[in-house]
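Researcher: Please generate the 3D structure of the following complex. Treat every line as part of one assembly.
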Amino acid sequence: MQYVYSDVTKSNNFFGNSNPIDLIKEYGSPLYVYNERIFRERCREMKNLVSYPNFSVNFSVKANSNLHLLKIALEEGLNVDAMSPGEMFVELKAGFKPEQILFISNNVSAEEMQFAIDHNITVSVDSLSQLELFGTINPGGSVAIRFNPGVGAGHHKKVITGGKETKFGVDAKFIPQVKEILNKYNLKLIGINQHIGSLFMEGNAYVEGVKSILSIAKNFENLEFIDLGGGFGIPYHKQDNESRLDLTTLGEQLDSVLNEWTDSYGKKITFKIEPGRYISAECGVLLGTVHAVKINYENKYVGTDLGFNVLQRPIMYDSHHDIEIYRESDICSTKKEAVTVVGNICESGDIIAKNRVLPEIFEGDILGVLDAGAYGHVMSSNYNNRLRPAEVLIKEDGNPILIRRRDTLEDLIQYYNI
Ligand SMILES: *Cc1c(COP(=O)(O)O)cnc(C)c1O
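Model: Done. Output below.
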């Protein structure tokens, strides 16, 4: 086979002892492929972010909740965040202990809160009314609160989760009311958290956000933890040599802020972070097949099986993903051209890459969509009654194993009473 355009995966030996053509033959197209070595590397980079001793990395599993990857994260010493009972359920199945899980709730029902309480999982609430609800169903209990420090950051307005225009967290001006509710139900506030947004590439915005939550934390005695949030960005433009987030500088800045704060607080409490994308995005490549190439008026379209049912990020957030090309045949071309890479879903917004300059692509080529390991398979759907792809892991020894099977046609009708 020819690696027509594949510098990124070549440079990190992504496919190990296998290759994209064989993987598609064996497991079907489209296909999510993960690399265990890269996943573990990212876990370790986050664990070693600071030298501050009481530091917990909570993988935000909404980015990728594949059970096999969760088990690897557990082996690497990570803890986890959950956004729903389903996530808590899967995390417990993966082997995480209740004390390793933080339920970051948002507008949840009493039953959902009760699920966490019944499983001894710490709940973080994100409004005064949900704090009231927690007090009603678990008086005398321990609780955490998500604050909104009034600042936000992120790559798209849908993922900026702090700041004055978002639904998240408790406005710090309500601290007196928070204290009233805590007293009323004899609740112990053990932690506070924030998450101001996703995909920052400069550490400074994060450190500023950290300072905000630390100044809020000063209002409460006897906290056990402060959770600083996730959002650590990854370079999605690797083919243009985009640089990585400078973790060394960020770590040093954080260390000095955290140590200074705990010195004045008088207690080396635990600091947590909640990276999702940083842990899993780069360990994933989505493979798909080119089924048709055509010219419509001025535009050349590359038609693939990579619809937005398989990868939602481009249509949802206008996200960029680099694309590689692999070829089984010996067709050769030195031409480069702007093409629009589309899927097979009946909607004109079904576009993975618009006007992207790529080496000439032919029918039968396999495309690799890079950095698809976060918010990829977890957001895939059966829209158009298509089958969600299988997930394969390239193990550390370089060999592939199936870690989630592809949907079957029978799966599509399993929920009907027929
Ligand atoms: C989504 C989310 C994260 C993870 O965001 P990333 O950008 O993937 O790091 C962390 N914390 C909370 C509360 C979230 O909702």
